[in-house]
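Anyone up for a design puzzle?
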């Protein structure tokens, strides 16, 4: 699951997962958090990839973290908060446990 805001770039045996919202200091939207596990699974299936680098696009910042502009929506109800927090947790889990 790639989008214009998060995608994979291959450099031989290295692959970069790129956070691409430089105008927002590469802050992650909910959709980006949701995309991370699928991107990690995709890279786990790539036999030529030995290392993965998570990086931000542009020169200003790696990532400002979560996009606070979404907080009113994603924390608007208990159910919505749970879904958002589950997405963030799944992204961290996938990135930290992916085996290459």
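Challenge accepted. My sequence:
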């Amino acid at each position: 699951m790639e989008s214009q805001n998060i995608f994979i770039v291959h450099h031989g045996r290295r692959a970069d997962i790129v956070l691409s919202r430089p105008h927002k200091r590469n802050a992650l939207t909910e959709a980006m958090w949701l995309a991370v596990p699928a991107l990690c699974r995709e890279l786990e299936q790539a036999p030529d990839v030995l290392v993965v680098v998570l990086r931000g696009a542009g020169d200003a910042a790696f990532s400002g973290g979560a996009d606070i502009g979404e907080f009113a929506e994603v924390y608007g109800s208990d159910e919505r908060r749970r879904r958002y927090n589950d997405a963030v947790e799944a992204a961290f889990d996938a990135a930290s446990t992916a085996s290459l």
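A detail worth pointing out: Helices lie at 30-44, 71-74, 78-97.
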